[in-house]
Amino acid sequence: MSFADIFQPPLGRLGLQSLPFWDMLQHPARANVINGCIATGAAFMVVIGAIAVIVLITLAGKWRVLWSDWLTSPDHKKIGIMYVALALVMMSRALIEAWLMRAQQAFGLDGGFLSSDHFAQLFSTHGTIMIFFMAMPFLTGIINYVMPLQIGARDVSFPVLNSISLGLTAAGAALVMVSLVIGEFSTGGWFGYPPYTEASFNPGVGPDYWIWALSLSSIGSTLTGINFAVTIYKERAPGMTLMRMPMFTWAALCTSILMIFAMPPLTVATAQLALDRYLGFHFFTNALGGNPMHFVNLFWLFGHPEVYILILPAFGVYSEVIPAFSGKALFGYPSLVMATMAIAILSFTVWLHHFFTMGQSADINAVFGIASMLIGIPTGVKIYDWLLTMFRGRVRITVPMVYSIAFILLFVIGGMTGILLADPGIDYQVHNTVFLVAHFHNVAIPGVLFGMVAAYHFWFPKAFGFRLDERWGMISALCWIFGFMLAFFPLYILGLMGMSRRTVAYTEPSYVPLEIVAFIGAFLIVGALGALVIQLWVSIKHRNENRVFAGDPWDGRSLEWAVSAPPPEYNFPVIPVVTGRDAFTTAKEEGKAYPRLETYVDIEMPGNSAMGPVLGALGFAMAFGLVWHIWWLVIFSSLGAAATMILRGFARDTTRTVPAQKVRQEHQHWLDAVAAARAISRAHEGTAANRGLAEQAAAGVVP
User: Which of the two ends of the chain, N or C, has the fewest CB atoms closer than 10 A to its terminal CB?
Assistant: First the structure.
């Protein structure tokens, strides 16, 4: 009996064969060695990265700080920062996987260097990570940080629930990362269609990793949507009516509603697929009354609203960035609000266009084709409003503005190709070709990723008190833009030439030149990620030269710019009273932007809670146990989660008080810094002279 046999029962399916290099050692063929080395290298990167983080935190003696100031903090701002950090880490992995796929297809005429199974894992993990563990955490983090500040709130309505949502999302991401080291990920794509993901077709652990990672993420996102919606409805400052909210907050509200109604179908679909795989149910099998199309309908009932869950916050970002760097109020505010709401509603009416070719009648295809075309109308309204905002404005070419302009130019192309695909006749011709890959990325990268990176640059000074390096930011932006065009525009042509998507190898030599161009584009995109890392390093190194403690480096228009950078934990010493749109701009124009207060009061804030990290850790343990059939781990982690929630019900001391004296000291220290700062013009906002006081605001400063 071997070592693995002894420990097989308590460890379920987990054994030596689960290690990434095991098959390479057992079957040392050339293809196995190449793929085994790539998989093992990726696994070692994850392991070494995790060990390096642990060692650095230990050497710095920061475990207590990490636990008390961050992991257990209910502060929406810190939770938002952790969401964004998680997104950037996961994006790094997903971009490397994308580069490997482009490299494989560039040299795929002769078979390439990846096995079909390894390639299938790459496109499955790439899609899963970019949708669920990059874009979703990124937008959730940005909304978490900005939205409560924009509406004049001290925090979200349910701070502990906010921490739990982060813990569940991080647990799902950790499960995906662990699949690199132990076992393998699903080969069924980011959509996990049965019957391929049914146990009879795919009995391995890959589909189980996918199911439980998505289940954790979808539950966390549903809770987040409820939290954000309640916050916006109930926590707005006095005078902030719905039609006085900033457009980013409107986008956050519509996104939250989409999360509430769109995530449950995904949760139901993955739960039913799990019942099929674990208990022999037949929801989606080809026999005994099951129907795989039920899964397809459930998934895309989530999947297309998900596109707008991702893109509406980015639209909100552009609606903040463009007015700020055009020196004008947002053009067509009411039409933008109506367009945002129309997109949110119409997003639930178009899911069937994802499977026009799967057997529906021509009448049904026509109805959904028309609905898919209609959704382009409110999007077009937004484009025109942004262009008219820039018209005759004082446009400043900053990094966030470069992303915004590039978005408008490139997103129009992606939107028009979407209109083409909304025609069932055209869709029949290009369905399952790389034309569709080009279209989706033409929407997702300029529409979502550019928006999130623009938000990162735009609000970074607010979060950390210093500006990011403009030169390296511009290098990264140009690499993103040109890398995207080189990587995906050739795929439109390849799709029309008939190249199938998810193709590990091909026999048509005419594909090669365009695939080489796409590979170069992917290389530039990886370079954009590298430039982002360098930019952060350079910015931290020179942070003292770029301090913006006064809090308003861009001549902002909404309330998040009305406090120090970074803001205090309670956000506002006194909840502001809003008298119109662009509340902070109005205050600056009236000379009331920086009032000195006569009296201060104690402020009650939520106390720290370990619920988020503990439930996240237990959720990860339970999911890992379910993947590997380690039933004792599933039982103990489930009981632990139940006990944690019960014990929370007995907690009495759940708040803490910030004394009035501390509020006074912090507020007056900030006002003194504002009074000492030199107001700068917009022409000098990118220089060291920018300390966070806009020239327009100088009249509102009380010495």
Answer: N
